[in-house]
Design goal:
This protein has about 70 residues and is mostly helical. The protein is built from 2 helices and no strands. It has a domain of about 45 residues.
């Protein structure tokens, strides 16, 4: 029985947005959403990058809801 081909979870555009956010964090110029506060941690940089990717229409899995 043939196995189904796996589809990539994140598009190349999403990866670029996250990469850009990580570079901005390293440079100390990463800013988050509406508040414009500085993003300091690695996790924040990834979250900001994925959020921007979602807004631009890149393929990114949905956010997990709060339980």
């Amino acid at each position: 029985m043939a196995t189904k081909a796996k589809k990539k979870k994140y598009s190349a555009g999403a990866a670029k947005k996250v990469e850009r956010a990580m570079k901005k964090r390293k440079a100390g110029t990463l800013r988050s959403g509406r508040s414009g506060r500085k993003g300091r941690s690695r996790k924040q940089a990834i979250a900001i990058g994925l959020s921007e990717a979602r807004q631009s229409g890149a393929r990114v899995p949905k956010k997990k809801g709060k339980s």
